[in-house]
Amino acid sequence: MNAPHSPIRILLALAAPVLVAGGLALAGYSLSAAANPMRAAAPALHAAPAAPVLVELYQSEGCSSCPPAEAWLNGVADRPGLIALSFEVTYWDYLGWKDRFASPEFTQRQRDYAARNASREVYTPQFWINGQRTIVGAKGAELESAIASVRAAAPVPVVGAGDVTVAKGNAPARPAQVWLARYDPRLIRIPVKAGENNGRTLPHRNLVRELVLLGEWKGQSASYRFKPSTTGLRSAVFLQDGRGGSVLSVGSDAL
To answer: Which of 17, 170, 218, 220 could form an S-S bond across to 115 if both were Cys, CB 3.0 to 4.6 Å?
Structure first.
């Protein structure tokens, strides 16, 4: 744990390590009528939309450094081209406030990132961008730079109410894992009554409530089925290069 006044909370990952496009914009042009009155303006050419980017925030209601990072994520929760998800972790529960949305599975997912990237430590708040770049703390400029820098390496999953389809694409070096994350898009306000955030009401958006491994993708067109949500949760599906690896692409039923 860092010094008490540090803006970032840190914890040694005690669990054993688990090893396991942007489009090119084609600018159109036109010839002005004044320069050539006999020629109409050429139509502009538009690039295909860039693939969505997965932004994962690992945080806890028991962490006093986390609210600024959560405020940033809440602010981009509805931004086109982003799928921003909040994963609540368990390892600050001992400070006096048990985070009801935290899951050991989410904690392990964060530790998988640390193990895959040769780190023994996990942090709160910590962002992962497409599983490729990590930012500790609420550093907006660095987050925006990271979002702009990552690229998809697989077709974007098309997510329906109870199924997902991934088109044929370049085969990955090893089968990619296909994950389903169910998340709550509503604004949920939680009054915290103990621990570091005692007396504060924390607003949550896009809280992940369930994480399910649907199967593997090997480069061929494939479909996967899952039980439709009956509780208003949305579904995000991402292809990942093994546990803690790069996210190759991501889609959501909110797109």
So the answer is: 17
Measured CA to CA, the distance from residue 195 to residue 63 in angstroms comes to: 8
d(CA 9, CA 92): 9
The domain ranges of the chain are 49-252
Give the CATH fold of the 49-252 domain: Glutaredoxin (3.40.30)
- Residue 223, classed as helix, strand or coil, is strand
Prior bond of 125 cis (ω within 30°): yes
Q: How many whole angstroms separate alpha carbon 206 and alpha carbon 254?
A: 11
pLDDT in tens, 168-193: 999 999 999 999 999 999 999 999 99
CB 95 within 8 A of CB 195: yes
61: CB partners within 8 A, 6+ apart:
88, 97, 99, 101, 102, 190, 192, 195, 197, 202
pTM: 0.83
CA distances from 166 to 8, 213, 220, 221 (A): 38, 15, 8, 6
How far apart are alpha carbons 13 and 120 in whole angstroms?
6
For the record, the structure tokens of 234 come out as: 């949305």
